[in-house]
Structures are given as structure tokens and as C-alpha cells.
UniProtKB/TrEMBL annotation:
Coiled coil residues, start to end: none
PROSITE patterns for the chain: ABC_TRANSPORTER_1, ABC_TRANSPORTER_2
Signal sequence region: none
Subcellular location: Cell membrane
Keyword Nucleotide-binding annotated: yes
Organism this protein belongs to: Williamsia serinedens
Principal cellular location given in the protein's record: membrane
Record membrane topology: Peripheral membrane protein
The protein's name in its UniProt record: Polar amino acid transport system ATP-binding protein
GO molecular function: ATP binding
Sequence similarity: Belongs to the ABC transporter superfamily.
Annotated Pfam families: ABC_tran
Keywords: Amino-acid transport, ATP-binding, Cell membrane, Membrane, Nucleotide-binding, Transport
Length: 252
């Protein structure tokens, strides 16, 4: 982990309109800085704003107020082309979102070839290396529906890093998996973190967050209730709300 600031959020706010009622504030002024090579885990109850925060960073959702800076550039500036930013960010959501009509290898090579302009042969070599890295070396010609959920999510991770992103956003990547398959996906994430990938990850896997995260950020009602090292947050939370949330996860 370096001291170079890669991502900075300044007073980021986001609300959604509700039919027949006042707007629902999802993010109520988020200030967050992430340095290159850092692993930041976002924890909190469902509806606390974790997923919306990740979507705002990837410019999938437009912020209502505040600024997001990526590698020294304000990406919430309306003059910024979102696709230029997304080329440098990998994203994996709860749903695998693999193209069902493409093989595993073609799912992984699509972005590098069409978005990053790499040759097909180079992209295929890289895809095979990534499949070996995620433990699926013999699945390149398989189709998504021939894989288990854990295997599909590992392919999604391989696809996300195929373009050599500077930042990886993971949104509850194990939430849709059978408990028996969670470990194989987290092992891939663990390897990416060990290799120095900058990761911002929303998760309910508290033991994993405690083990891997450089910093843990607890969100409640769209605000950062507490942030600190994993050791500090899990062993000596300063906020009562943090302590009450963590008490639900015995053995952490």
C-alpha cells in the first residue's frame, strides 16, 4: 500500500425520489479517501448506502451534491466522459452479469478487445492466465449456465480485472451464493488484495473484512458512523451503533 491518493469523496450526497412522499436520502454527506493498494471494506445493514456509494464511484448513479476525485481528477465534473473513467475501474456486483450466449473465455476477452483495443490473441492468453488464477483453467469453452454460482462469480472477478483496472469495486459478491461456495470466491479476492489491487468492497462477510481490510468503514443511514483499521473497528468500536451491528455476528 502506498501513500498515493487514488480515490477521494467529498461530501457526496444522493437521494431518490419517492412517489407521493419526500425524497429518500441514501447518502448524506460521505467523505472518504482511498490510497493506492488499500483494501477498504464497507459494512452496514442493508439499505445503509453501500451499494449506492459504489454505483456513484463508478458513475452509474449521478451524485446530487459533492465531488468524487479519481487519480487527481474530479470525475463528477459534467465534462468528464463516464466511459473513460469506467475503463480504469473494475466492478463486480451481486449478480454475475455474464453474457449467457458467450463462452467463459469470450466473456473475459470482450472488454480488453473492444474497450481497451488489445489483440484477440493477447486477450485470450491473458484470459487463460486469469482462469488459472481463479482456479478454473479448464472452463474457458464452457458457457455460464454450465457453471456453479461460485464459478460464475469467479469468472466475473476474472473479467473485472482483465482490463488491468486501477480500482476494483465489489458489491456483496458473495450475497447470492450458497454458503458452501462463498469461500472459493473470497479466496480469489484475498489473492487480488495480496497482489496490491486497490479494492473498495461492500460485504457482510465480517470475518473476511477483519482479516483482509486495511480499513473498515461502517455506514448507517447513508452516513459514515465509524471508520478505522479492521483491528480497531472490530475489537474496540467507538460508536454504540457499530458495536450493536457487530454484535449480530458472533465469533467475529
Amino acid at each position: 500500500m502506498s501513500d498515493r491518493e487514488l480515490l477521494r469523496l467529498v461530501d457526496v450526497r444522493k437521494s431518490y425520489s419517492r412517489r407521493g412522499g419526500p425524497d429518500h436520502e441514501v447518502l448524506g454527506g460521505i467523505d472518504l479517501t482511498v490510497t493506492a493498494g488499500e483494501v477498504v471494506c464497507l459494512i452496514g445493514a442493508s439499505g445503509s448506502g453501500k451499494s449506492t456509494l459504489l454505483r456513484c464511484i463508478d458513475l452509474l448513479d449521478e451524485v446530487d451534491d459533492g465531488e468524487i476525485w479519481f487519480d487527481g481528477r474530479e470525475i463528477t465534473d459534467p465534462r468528464v466522459e463516464p466511459d473513460d473513467v469506467r475503463r480504469r475501474i473494475g466492478v463486480v456486483f451481486q449478480a454475475y452479469n455474464l453474457f449467457p450466449h458467450l463462452t467463459v473465455r469470450d466473456n473475459i476477452t470482450l472488454g480488453p478487445v473492444r474497450v481497451h483495443g488489445r489483440s484477440r490473441s493477447d486477450a485470450r492468453r491473458s484470459a487463460q492466465a486469469l482462469l488459472e488464477r481463479v482456479g478454473l483453467p479448464d472452463k474457458g469453452t464452457a458457457y455460464p449456465d454450465e457453471l456453479s454460482g461460485g464459478q460464475q462469480q469467479r469468472v466475473a472477478l476474472a473479467r473485472a480485472v482483465a482490463g488491468d483496472p486501477e480500482l476494483l469495486l465489489l458489491d456483496e459478491v458473495t450475497a447470492a451464493l450458497d454458503p458452501l461456495l462463498v469461500g472459493e470466491v473470497l479466496q480469489v479476492v484475498r489473492g487480488l488484495a495480496a497482489d496490491g489491487m486497490t479494492i473498495v468492497m461492500a460485504t457482510h462477510e465480517m470475518a473476511f473484512a477483519r482479516e483482509v481490510a486495511d480499513r473498515v468503514v461502517f455506514l448507517a443511514d447513508g452516513r459514515i458512523e465509524e471508520a478505522g483499521t479492521a483491528e480497531q473497528v472490530f475489537t474496540a468500536p467507538r460508536s454504540t451503533r457499530t458495536a450493536e451491528f457487530l454484535a449480530r455476528f458472533r465469533g467475529v
